[in-house]
């Protein structure tokens, strides 16, 4: 797992828990406690967590310091490749629900480029202000923005109103971002609110695909979303075939294969 990717996941695990031990982080990430210590030191150096005996605690920074803006630049080129690969799978004329996240913003940009090139049109429902911003006023894109509470620092929409709006829609494809994927735990997220929105998205879509870099494989987050078999495809990066992946990540890939989830490498 690339260091920036692992830092992203580690940071969100710490912020979600408030306080977390080295042993728990190592188990969730599938790495050694020594690796966790180095990562926590790096995050502490950025002022994003505070190291304490045996683990770390979240720092009371503005949400933007550890939210969408902080993550957007990490592995941007990789996310762009995943975004283009996922967008290429969308049929012209399709209705698409785009999840929140930095990788789904890359999908939105690639979809907008396809539409501008005459490969659309697309109707897109967004549960994210950054995703909506990437699609607004773009030719060949009909944009719908779900209502709901905007999460500070993330720009994502969540809560009962968001779920109620989504239940009024039926879409051809749900493009879901994810915080973690594990052979036994399935797809999971860092907050209950995010998990709830994704569950509704899965219910309202005729088909679903996940966009996530390989750092999410073999990781267990806080809130369960669905079993691996709930989606048809995973679009990820070539790191998913790295022979040095953690055993947990390799087990997850085997479980995806058993669940008939097609893995597309960007």
From TrEMBL:
Pfam families: DeoRC (PF00455), HTH_DeoR (PF08220). InterPro entries: Carb_Metab_HTH_regulators (IPR050313), DeoR-like_C (IPR014036), DeoR_HTH (IPR001034), NagB/RpiA_transferase-like (IPR037171), WH-like_DNA-bd_sf (IPR036388), WH_DNA-bd_sf (IPR036390). Keywords: Transcription, Transcription regulation. One of its GO terms (molecular function) is DNA-binding transcription factor activity. Signal peptide: none annotated. Residues 3-58 form the HTH deoR-type domain. PANTHER family: AGA OPERON TRANSCRIPTIONAL REPRESSOR-RELATED, HTH-TYPE TRANSCRIPTIONAL REGULATOR SRLR-RELATED. This is Transcriptional regulator, DeoR family. The lineage of its organism: Bacteria, Bacillati, Actinomycetota, Actinomycetes, Geodermatophilales.
């Amino acid at each position: 797992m690339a260091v920036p990717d692992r830092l992203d996941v580690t940071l969100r695990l710490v912020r979600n828990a408030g306080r977390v031990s080295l042993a728990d982080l190592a188990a969730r990430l599938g790495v050694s406690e020594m690796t966790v210590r180095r990562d926590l030191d790096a995050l502490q150096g950025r002022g994003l967590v505070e190291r304490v005996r045996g683990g770390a605690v979240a720092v009371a920074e503005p949400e933007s310091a550890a939210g969408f803006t902080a993550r957007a630049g990490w592995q941007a080129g990789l996310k762009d490749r995943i975004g283009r690969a996922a967008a290429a799978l969308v049929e012209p004329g399709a209705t698409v629900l785009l999840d929140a996240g930095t990788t789904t913003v890359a999908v939105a940009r690639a979809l907008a480029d396809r539409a501008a090139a005459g490969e659309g049109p697309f109707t897109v429902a967004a549960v994210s202000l950054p995703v909506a911003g990437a699609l607004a006023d773009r030719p060949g894109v009909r944009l719908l923005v779900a209502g709901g509470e905007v999460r500070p620092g993330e720009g994502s929409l969540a809560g009962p109103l968001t779920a109620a709006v989504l239940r009024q829609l039926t879409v051809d494809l749900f493009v879901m971002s994810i915080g973690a994927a594990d052979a036994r735990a399935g797809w999971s997220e860092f907050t209950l609110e995010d998990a709830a929105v994704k569950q509704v998205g899965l219910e309202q879509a005729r088909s679903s695909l996940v966009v996530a870099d390989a750092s999410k494989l073999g990781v267990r987050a806080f809130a369960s979303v669905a079993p691996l078999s709930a989606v048809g495809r995973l679009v990820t990066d070539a790191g998913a075939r790295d022979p040095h992946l953690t055993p947990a990540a390799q087990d997850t890939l085997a479980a995806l294969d058993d669940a008939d989830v097609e893995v597309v490498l960007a």
